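quick one before i forget lol
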Amino acid sequence: IEGALDQLSVDSKDVSLLSQRVNEVEASVGRLTAELAEKKAERMARTRQPGSSGSIHELSSANAGGYVSEVVSSVHTDNSFAPHALQNEVERLAREISDERDERMQLAQELRWRADVAHEHLCRLSSEFGATQ
């Protein structure tokens, strides 16, 4: 019985440590989400041009094509950009979209990996705890 109580104590410490780590991961995800939103807002502010028609909407991976089309139509109606400037703007936007997509995919992979590790650890602790009872 004494050995089982010792094991229970160790397991409860492990669960407590794991809980702290899960909270840290959640906090990191929250910070990363806020940072991504801030960077996105900064990029949006940089893309707004003086004298534009104001038809530029928020960028997301889902509506990136529509966003680029709106930039192109805005530039054509404004006639304040030279053709090479339009091409440069479209290329810059395409790079930003690609970079943002890559960053989101990397963060999602890291989050999935951390969640899998935490789940495996919880399952192991649960089975060990069940075996001691």
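fyi The first helix runs from residue 2 to 47.
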